[in-house]
Fold this protein.
Amino acid sequence: MQDHLIIFDTTLRDGEQAPGIALSPDDKVAIAHQLAKLRVDVIEAGFAASSAGDFKAVSRIANEVQGPIIATLARTHPDDVDQAADALKGASRKRIHVFNSTSRIHMEQMLRMTPAEVKASVIEAVRRAKRYVDDVEFSPQDATRSDPDFVAEVCRAAVDAGATTINVPDTVGYAMPDDFVALLTKVYGEVRAGNEDVVISTHCHNDLGMAVANSLSAIHAGARQIEGAINGIGERAGNTSTEEIIMAVSTREDFFGVEVGADTKEIFETSRLVSRLTGYPVQYNKAVVGRNAFAHESGIHQHGVLRNRETYEIMDPAAVGQESVIVLGKHSGRAAFSDALTRLGITLEDVDFQRSFERFKKLADRKGEISEEGIRAIVAEEMGGLPGEMLLVAIHMSGGSDETPTARVTLSRDDEEITSESEGDGMVNAAFVAVQDAFGIAAELIDYRVEPITSGADAMAVVNIVVKVGSETHRGRGVSTDVVEGSVRAMVAAMNRAAIGRVAVDGRPA
C-alpha cells in the first residue's frame, strides 16, 4: 500500500499575505468550506494572534468546518501560543503551528537572538502548545539559508519537546531541488530517526519558480506533507500551488509512490472561488486551473486530441472540474474546423466547406480566436453565394478627415478581375459606389446594420444591408473584424443577388 501524502493548505494564512489581499472572516469561512470539499488534510486557517479579524476567522472555521485538521500559526511568544489554542477551541481536530527563524541573517538582523536563545524559545513554545493540543508542528523559518546542522539540532529539540510534524520551509525560494533534497534527507535521517510517528514536511516559496519542483523533489527524501496555497498565491512570488501538487502526485503515482485523498473534481471550483474572493486572477497558462490548461489551438494537437484525448492530455480535464477546449484560431486545421461544424449541427458539401474554411483562416489570421457565433456567421456568408457570383479579391481605402475618402475594390469572376475606384462622403459610401461601378449596376442602399458578435478590441461584426435595384430589393451579409471590409462583403453579396436576378429576368449578364 502506498504512503499517504498529507496536503496542508495555507491559502488562508500565507496565501492571504499576498499584497492587496484582505479576506473577511466570511470569505475565509467560505474558502475553508470549499477546501473541506476538496478534502485537503490540513487547513491553516490563519495567524490567530496577528489581528482580531484573523482570530475571529480561525475561531469560526474551527467551529464550523468539519473534516480537515484546523491549524493556526504562532510565533514562539507565549501569548501567540495561548491565542492560537483559544481560537482552535471549537475544532474537533486541531494543530498549533509554531515557528522561529534559524538563518544567521534572520537571527542577527530581525530577531536579535543568539542560536541558543532561538533553540530555547522553540522548546518552550512547543511544550506550551503541547499543553493545549496533541498535534504540534514546528518550522525553522528560512531553513534553506540556515546552517544545516543547526536546523537539524533545533528540529530534534522540537521533537523532543513534543512536536509531531517538522516542516522545512524554503521561505525565500532560494533552494534548488538538489539542495533541498540534501537538506530534507539530513532532517529525515537525523530528526525522525527513532521517532517514526514524526512527519517531515515542506513549505516552499516560488521566488525562483522552483516551489512545486522543490516540494515534489522532497517526497523522495521522505517528506510526507506538502504545504501550499490554491493558485500558488502568497508572499512575493507566491507559494507552492496546492492543486499542482495534488495533480502531479495523482498523475504520476508510479513515480512518487504516494497517494493523496483529495477530491480532484473540486479543484477548478476551489481555484475560481479563491480567485474571486482574493481578486487575484488566474493566469491563462497556469497549470491545472488556467483557462488554457486544457485548450488546444495547434492544428496538429487538435487533430490528435479529436482522435484520442490522451495524445496531448496527460490529465483528464473532467478529473479537475475542467473540460477540453478546441480553440479555433489561425493554427487550427480542417479537423478542428470540421469538428466545430459538427458540434454546431452544420453539414457542408466539400466545395462549401473549403470556401468556409479558407474564409475562417483569413479571419483567424487577424482576430486570433473565432467563437462559435463567428463560425456560424462565416458559414452563413459563404453559403449565401450563387453560381457565377463575383468574389471580393481586395479592398484599399484612403483619405480621412481632411481628404475625400476613396475606395479601390477588386472583384473576380472565374478568371477575370475587375477593379473599380470611387470617392464618397465616407469610407462606406465610397466603397459602395466602387462596388456598384464594378458590377455595372446602379443600386440604392436602403438599410445598413452592424451587429457585433464578439467583444473586445478585435471584435468580429456582421454587417447586414438591403439594396434596391429597380423595384427589387436584395439582402447581403458580410463578416469581418473590420467594419468597412464587412460592409464591402455585404455589398458584394447583395449585388451578386441583384446581378443574378437580372440574368434570370433579362436573359443577359450584368
